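Hi P.,

Sorry for the delay on this. The queue was packed all week, but I finally got your sequence through. Input first:
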Amino acid sequence: MIKRFLLLLVILIAGCAPKYPVTGPPKDPLPGTFFSSADESLSHKELASAMKGNDFILIGESHNNPCDHKVQAGIIEEMSRTGKSFALGLEMVSVDRQDILDRFNKGLIDVDNLREMLHWDESWGFDYELYRMIFETSRKYSVPVFALNVPREITRNISRHGMESLSFEEKTFLPENIIYPPQEQVEILERQFEFHQDMIQADEPYFQRFIAAQSVWDTKMASEAIRIHKDRQEPVVILSGTMHVKKGYGIEHRLRSLMPHARVTSIVPVRSLEMITSDNPYHFFCPPVRSGMRLGIVASEEDGQVMVTGVVKGSLAENAGLEKHDEIVKVDGKHISSMADLHHAAVNAAQGDREMVMEVLRNGRKEFINIRLMRAMPATQ
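Then the structure:
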């Protein structure tokens, strides 16, 4: 899903000197500072105390933001120190790998080996090192960790071909009852869809499949969290992308539908104090990450091929000459067979502050595209 932030700074200068001294804009708070929906700062202990009595605690994140993950680990640690037991549920791991997490929970797999055992790079794609402190904290305080999601290929197949394309085995991973988003969220998604429609040449059936895939994704996480809560008779802390937490949509909507009397609260990251709203009860501040990841590529992955389905106007990709329908074959001489491969290649190029040399097939001809990644460019969130 493509997410954009547009920062517009407007400066109005009066024609005469002000009566009182002009001060600059308020400084950002320290990273990891907590706030209530009323914009009141909270200490770690105050937040942990506020979490008491809830059945489910949702903590959002931008997947590529180290500060977000540090805050999540800090919340887990502070809650553990209260002495009340709870379970940790992860969007990042699919339920078919729960046996690996069971062995981790028993101390049979250490944090260093978990990455390989979970096939993390292939199944999730975001750097495991960003999540290491979460696993280390759960190990330190004996917090059991659980997988919440369906395997990614299932939602990918739903988005591309519809629910009817799933095999019998794939359907066994689906939640018993798929809960669709509330109408107000559908309207927001429709506006986003219309904005991107020309760029990706999507049609209404595509939008309906997208809604179905998102509904499976969120319903599965909610139903698994409820199962864990009932089995263990203790709260479940859920870590997931912010878009699955904001405004009570996503996971919370499904939790309340499946378990009407559930006590649910949420904590979402904000990148400025202006982003604090009453839509969520708690927030934490983390500055946005800065990297060279805004390539402007809309791509799809199928059968080991990464195809460009759209190029954002004015982006690095367009300026470098990448075109729709290009097949990305190699980056910096390494074969690309998944979106995770492309992500890692871009990260490596950005960290090295160098050009990314992309080999593509265009109408059967080999072309080379050089994209210069600028580390100072704000990343998409």
